[in-house]
Write a structure and sequence with these properties.
6-stranded mixed beta sheet, mainly beta, Immunoglobulin-like, OB fold (Dihydrolipoamide Acetyltransferase, E2P)
Length: 538
């Protein structure tokens, strides 16, 4: 196995050599159809691969919220999630585990992962992104499905035998586990999924102590099955999600070791537990209070570092209640987390307080759009997205795609995340860009030239909708698109700033050319960066 010291972030000659060999094989095996996933075969066995632990260590040492892998690295891992079982929040998501026993959540940049449980993948990690995905609360690696090739199928990964207590204290995030001697605390008349929301979590207790939540999404094909009444063993993917451990069954077979015989149940009073009656509380801007009910058989304390709320009491024993009081909010929406714990068991409550309602703005636009484009020297490439909608926007519904040299399919794709507040911008930069010192979101999509089309896309009910387009997708204009009247207006060696009068993007791919270049953009000399980080709309 390659150690972290051997690997580093700079790569080594052997890895570069094997990567070159991999590229030749990769190119030979790839289909021209972007929807086709091909198999590599056995030739890759001579390659040397990084491990998932290496990847996790890289991310930790980078001290970044997200990291783009810019080295020629390869990973071999097996898909342990079940696409047919469908117990996932998005069709793009899944889990992989390597031969060292380490696991990791993944997401493909396309609309759906094509990989099935048991597929052994060879993944080209160059340009992949590692980040903490806030919405799901997990560490995740993001790559294109075209950078992952199937080396073998129907590979069996045996689950690790753990207890809930050892799970809480070990490194099992993203791995397949089996937990013995467990039972659902509440089960009578209950199904895996409660019928509302994106997912339902059911509390599972172990005879040796400790509890864990079993998460079932609304997409799971077993969601309407009844919970087993008795004790037994359960298999699932362990995940450290939003500071809590949870178990995600892949399919209904993962619970076949659970008995339906109530007489097999153990006495729950012998097991330490904490349960809460709410997992999320939302307050209006004016503030208020809410009561959280706690059912427990241990001493517990309540932890929170938010100065804008108070909790009473901050500790207790066995069953009880805590009252949360939130002060008035005269700013934007704010969030915090309350943790109720005995030192081993931890339950979290998400606290959200809405921002102060502003007067309805008439000078707003309906959607995000590109407000600046920098095609500078060397790696100095930037894109800027502006939010003038009058409200904060969740960026997880948006994608940027770059189409190079007139190609009709994207070469680079970035699935955005985070929240963009009203009247603010998101600056996207090449990882080696140097002319702007403000906050940036580094991405491979900032790797374009003057003849590459760029699209901002919104996902609406699993459909992709153009929100804005720079250039013309599928057209190669030569070196650049240029305005027919003002030859200084072009997409090569220029900084382009959207005019303040513009209130929306190009939502339909032009038949030819870049027709709005001369009417909606202002041109500045190469490497102009002083307009980045802000935008004005009349």
């Amino acid at each position: 196995m390659m150690t972290k010291k051997q690997l580093g972030l700079r790569g080594i000659p052997l890895l570069v050599l094997t990567y070159t060999t991999f590229l030749l094989l990769f190119t030979t095996c790839m289909s021209v159809d972007d929807d086709t996933v091909t198999q590599i075969g056995k030739d890759v066995q001579s390659f040397e691969f990084v491990t998932i632990k290496d990847i996790r260590d890289m991310y930790t040492e980078s001290r970044r919220g997200e990291m783009i892998i810019d080295e020629p690295l390869m990973l071999k891992a097996v898909v342990i999630s079940d696409r047919e079982g469908a117990n996932r929040s998005s069709k793009r998501d899944g889990y992989i585990q390597d031969s060292e026993g380490y696991g990791l959540a993944f997401r493909v940049t396309q609309s759906e992962t094509p990989f099935n449980m048991g597929d052994e993948l060879i993944i080209n990690l160059q340009d992949a992104k590692i980040h903490y995905f806030d919405y799901a609360g997990i560490l995740q690696i993001v790559f294109s499905k075209m950078d992952a090739q199937i080396n073998a199928q129907n590979v069996t990964v045996s689950p690790k035998e753990v207890t809930i207590k050892t799970l809480h204290n070990g490194m099992y995030d993203g791995t397949l586990v089996r937990i013995k001697d467990v039972q659902f605390e509440d089960y009578k008349g209950l199904n895996y999924y409660a019928g509302e929301g994106n997912a339902t979590s059911r509390l599972l207790a172990c005879v040796d102590g400790g509890t864990i939540e079993v998460k079932t999404t609304k997409n799971a094909n077993f969601k309407n099955r009844a919970l087993p009444a008795g004790k037994g063993s359960i298999v699932g993917i362990a995940s450290f999600c939003k500071e809590n451990w949870e178990l995600q069954m892949r399919n209904h077979d993962d619970a076949k070791g659970m008995s339906n015989d109530e007489s097999t149940r153990f006495n729950a009073e012998d097991t330490n537990y904490i349960t809460i009656n709410q997992k999320k509380v939302t307050f209006e801007a004016k503030g208020g209070e809410a009561t959280i009910g706690i059912t427990s058989n241990v001493n517990w304390e309540v932890l929170c570092n938010a100065s804008w709320l108070s909790i009473n009491p901050t500790n207790g024993e066995n069953d009880g209640e805590v009252v949360i009081v939130v002060s008035e909010n005269k700013d934007d929406e704010r969030t915090s987390t309350i943790t109720i714990t005995d030192g081993e068991i931890a339950k979290t409550i998400a606290i959200v307080q809405k921002g102060e309602e502003l007067e309805v703005e008439t000078d707003v636009c309906n959607e995000l759009f590109f407000s600046e484009y920098v095609e500078g020297s060397s790696y100095n490439k930037y894109l800027e997205i502006y939010n003038g909608t009058g409200k904060s926007v969740d960026l997880s519904d948006y994608i940027i795609e770059v189409y190079i040299n007139g190609q009709p399919t994207p070469k680079y794709t970035e699935m955005l995340d985070g929240v963009l507040k009203n009247n603010e911008v998101l600056v996207i930069a090449h990882s080696k860009a140097t002319i702007y010192n403000g906050a940036v979101y580094t991405s491979t999509v900032a790797n374009f030239n003057g003849n590459d089309a760029i699209a901002l896309i919104k996902i609406v009910n699993s459909n992709f909708k153009y929100i804005d387009i720079i250039g013309c997708i599928g057209e190669n204009p030569g070196k650049e698109w240029m305005d027919t009247v003002d030859k200084n207006l072009s997409t090569l060696d220029k900084t382009l700033v959207r005019k303040a009068s513009v209130r929306g993007g190009v939502t339909k791919n032009p038949e030819e050319g870049f027709p709005t270049l001369g009417t909606e953009w202002i041109s500045y000399p190469i490497d102009t960066s002083k307009y980045l980080g802000r935008h004005t709309m009349d």
